[in-house]
Specification:
Layout: H1 2-31, E1 36-41, E2 44-49
Antiparallel strand pairs: 1-2
Length: about 50
């Protein structure tokens, strides 16, 4: 029976890590600014729409 309990803890830990990673990725996706981005550099003027 102790082996089953360790496997259960491993599965629960993996699920917690997966939820954390997915939450962080969603946060990063929402953090991106919306609208236009204007860059002036050595290649000239670049305008990107998001």
């Amino acid at each position: 029976m102790p082996g089953n309990r360790n496997v259960l803890y491993l599965i629960i830990g993996a699920l917690v890590v997966a939820v954390g990673v997915l939450s962080y990725q969603l946060y990063q996706a929402k953090k991106q600014p919306e609208g236009f981005q204007i860059n002036v550099g050595p290649d000239g003027l670049k305008i990107q729409g998001k």
